[in-house]
Specification:
With about 800 residues, the protein is α/β, with parallel strands linked by helices. It is built from 28 helices and 21 strands. The strands form four sheets. Strands 3-4-2-1-5-6-7 form a seven-stranded parallel β-sheet, with helices on both faces. Strands 8-9-10-11-13-12 form a six-stranded antiparallel β-sheet. A six-stranded antiparallel β-sheet has the order 16-17-18-19-21-20, with helices on one face. α3 runs antiparallel to α4 and α20 packs antiparallel against α25.
């Protein structure tokens, strides 16, 4: 076998792909293009050296000797970045560029290595290309003909960081493209200029902070990647797992990867070279599905704090011996016995605990009784003061711990212990919360204690409302507050997904999200409760779930769906979408609401009720976000990174419209402000707002993110119902007016054609400066478009 699918690193990567807990970026190195006959760095350097020697020989003997000595000294240069820079000086720019172009000339027609195709079949977010051959771009065009691809070059990355989490895949050619020598990054000075660029630093931080990066076709001694990763290390970015696919087995490789926090996925070359094992690697990822849900979790035994209040001084008593015991003594004894039974761990201890639970069923039932009534309000050292919430899942009390600190105690219903599905759900949730606590993630209300007799959890007290209460009290009725809540909520969930254990919540709804410190000052922040605690397969038939909570569950959580898994980040995307929808409308969703024909209209109506909008296209974009997050089919939903990216851009735009730099955002904002585009349709794949009228007039505003342009297209074709007399004269005259007014507004006319029965005009304007004057541009553009507003009978 040339590729071991069971190696831990590959299994970890497969789980990430299957569960969609982190979007994937692939770094492609020169080794990936070598099978197409293209040179790697060392070979390209050798060609330059040979050309330099050849050129030196054309000079007179004295000059030729001096030049040859300079070239010889370059051959011993260990840093290739410095070597390339010196060669460029010795050879002269024209000769240097000519050699590189000839070396890569076959890239436009050579056969594309299959690995590039596999990368795009994996539906990665994008490719960070260290080659200048553009094979990654060619592979995308062949794998996804007609689909849009964002492509950026090395020193022109200023616009990429804000687009990483969009729906469009991208190729970032970090070292430029072969056709444009000005974009090349081969020399030490060129690399230094790139790495000092703020946009490059933002790109690196975003790529490694929120994506899982997979390196293919690079080596430990590959200078093209090592200097980028050294820069990353200096930034000290906290990141999800990253992986390096290699056939190297030397210790230097391990040392290099370990120093950078990268896991190695190894393969062995076979008779096909790299192609066979790489095909097996990708096919394994393409076939990845989430692991089946675990059905057994260890019972929840008491921690040290409460266990210290328990005692087994009475020995191993029989159930009937406890008939006259009070609740505090019962709980103390039963929990102490349970801790002893569970102490060895493993399946045998679990089995013994199940037997103990059956034998002591009646005492356990009595121990479950809880109250906040004085004299009956002690719960294993915690004093219950008042019940603050009650639902089908249990009761929540304000309480104090043995040290006098205020805490929240959630006591589950007694029936949970009689239903193995509910009991395992409780145990799974406690396990998830303990993992989160070990990693000390921010934004989680962690468990201080948990127990099964009775089943309860102890949490830090949160001074603030949950989102249900906040919405009902009118605290979240404006866009600034909603976007702040949304951004913090997604960040909390994303950080849990990024853990090595990839913790999902799977029960996101307003009651499980709180605004900590809301009643104190404006520094409140979002905190999330109960990761993985109360949801379980078949929840719709169980009373453990609130009736209103059903609408927040993803379809695959309620009924089995082919190709879908409940162990997927897409489940949390759905919960976030429905929660955001509630925060707009104030109405709990009903089960399968996303299947209703009027669902988009209902979402839009809720979104329109919020106040405080300064970015006019915000409601339309937020509506699309909710619809994308709550798509019926799991594979159609946005990833959390896409949701987070859109929320972040919208919040920044609404806070200060003048700072918006995205051509896409500015284009739609302009369309929203144009009366002629009223009721436009937005095409996400092409970033285009379109509007057509019965008179034959078609308008389009398209964003060009790479060029930082807005493109306006005005097309008119005779419909056949117009009065023919004077029509051509009218169109010609008004087309001239249209063109002149658009030019005066700042548009650059790039195409204009007026015929007897049609008109075509296209113009562009730089997007970024428009953010500071959208209203003025909209007014001037509207005035220009008025020239073409005519009915069936022109005047």
């Amino acid at each position: 076998m040339t590729f071991n699918e069971a190696q831990d690193s590959h299994v970890a990567l497969k789980e990430i792909v299957a569960e969609r807990t982190a979007p994937i970026l692939v770094w492609t190195g020169a080794g990936l293009s070598a099978s197409a006959g293209l040179p790697v760095w060392s070979q390209l350097r050798q060609r330059l050296m040979e050309a330099a020697y050849s050129n030196a020989a054309t000079f007179d003997p004295r000059e030729a000797s001096a030049r040859s000595q300079r070239i010889e000294s370059i051959s011993s240069e260990k840093d290739p970045w410095v070597a390339f820079q010196r060669l460029k000086v010795v050879m002269g720019q024209a000769s240097y560029e000519s050699v590189i172009r000839r070396a890569l000339g076959s890239a436009v027609s050579c056969q594309i290595p299959n690995t590039y195709r596999y990368i795009w079949r994996l539906n990665v977010a994008g490719v960070l290309n260290l080659n200048i051959d553009r094979l990654a771009t060619r592979a995308f065009s062949e794998e996804h003909p007609g689909d849009a691809l964002l492509e950026f070059e090395g020193l022109k990355l200023a616009r990429l960081p804000g687009l990483l989490h969009g729906r469009q895949p991208f190729v970032a050619n970090l070292h430029g493209i072969s056709e444009d020598a000005a974009s090349w990054v081969f020399t030490n000075d060129e690399l230094g200029k790139l790495q000092k660029d703020d946009a490059y630093l933002a790109l690196m931080q975003s790529c490694f902070g929120t994506f899982t990066n997979v390196f293919i076709g690079v080596g430990a001694d590959d200078v093209a990647i090592s200097r980028h990763l050294q820069k990353l290390k200096s930034l000290n970015v906290s990141h999800p797992p990253h992986f390096w696919v290699t056939n190297r087995t030397d210790s230097a490789t391990d040392d290099w990867a370990q120093s950078l926090g990268i896991q190695i996925v190894r393969y062995t070359k076979d008779e096909t070279g790299h192609e066979g094992p790489m095909s097996q690697f990708f096919n394994s990822l393409l076939a990845a599905v989430p692991a089946p849900e675990a059905t057994q979790f260890p019972p929840v035994s008491l921690g040290q704090q409460s266990a210290s209040t328990a005692s087994t001084d009475s020995g191993d008593l029989q159930p009937e011996s406890l008939i006259n015991w009070g609740a505090p003594e019962l709980r103390s004894y039963l929990n102490a016995r349970a801790s002893e039974i569970l102490a060895p761990g493993g399946a045998s201890a679990w089995s013994a605990y199940e037997s103990f639970s059956r034998d002591f069923d009646e005492p356990i039932y009595r121990a479950w009784y809880t109250s906040d009534r004085q004299g009956h309000n002690d719960l294993l050292g915690y004093t219950l003061h008042e019940q603050i919430a009650r639902g089908a899942f249990g009761r929540v009390y304000r309480a104090t711990d043995p040290d006098g600190n205020t805490v929240a105690v959630k006591v589950l219903l007694e029936e949970i212990r009689r239903d193995m599905g509910l009991l395992q759900s409780f145990r799974r949730g406690v396990q998830s919360m303990r993992i989160i606590g070990e990693h000390r993630l921010q934004g989680m209300v962690l468990y201080k204690e948990a127990s099964e007799i009775p089943a309860f959890v102890v949490m830090d007290w949160v001074d603030g409302p949950n989102l249900l209460q906040a919405k009902q009290s009118g605290y979240i009725d404006d866009w600034p507050t909603l976007l702040r809540v949304a951004q913090e909520l997604v960040a909390v969930i994303s950080s849990a997904h990024a853990l090595p254990d990839r913790i999902l919540h799977r029960d996101l709804r307003p009651a499980n999200v709180m605004l900590s410190g809301y009643y104190t000052d404006d520094t409140w922040h979002v905190v999330v409760l109960d990761f993985d605690l109360s949801w379980h397969r078949g929840a719709s038939e169980k009373s453990v779930v609130y009736s209103t909570a059903m609408g927040y569950l993803a379809p695959e959580q309620v009924t089995h769906q082919a190709g879908a898994s409940t162990r997927s980040a897409a489940v949390d995307a759905f919960g976030i979408g429905t929660t955001l929808n509630f925060l707009c409308s104030g109405v709990d969703p009903v089960l399968n609401e996303q299947q209703r024909a009027d669902y988009p209209q209902r979402v839009a109506a809720g979104v329109s009720s919020l106040t405080g909008v300064t970015w006019k296209s915000l409601p339309a974009r937020f509506t699309r976000l909710v619809l994308a997050a709550t798509a019926e089919h799991q594979s159609d939903r946005w990833d959390l990174s896409q949701i987070a990216g859109e929320i972040g851009r919208l919040r920044a735009a609404n806070d200060d419209p003048r700072t918006v730099a995205s051509a896409e955002l500015i284009t739609e904002e302009l369309a929203t402000g144009l009366r002629a585009f009223g009721g436009y349709s937005w095409e996400a794949d092409t970033l285009t707002a379109k509007k057509s009228s019965p008179t034959g007039l078609s308008l389009a505003l398209q964003a060009d993110e790479v060029g930082d342009l807005i493109k306006l297209s005005v097309e008119w074709n005779r419909t056949g119902v117009e009065q023919r007399t004077g029509l051509t004269k009218f169109v010609r005259r008004n087309a001239q007016t249209l063109s002149a007014r658009l030019s005066s507004a700042g548009w650059r006319i790039v195409h204009e054609n007026v015929g007897a029965s049609d008109l075509s005009l296209r113009c562009t304007i730089n997007a970024s400066p428009v953010a500071r004057r959208i209203a003025q541009l909209a007014t001037a553009t509207e005035n220009a478009l008025d020239a073409m507003q005519f009915g069936p009978t022109p005047m």
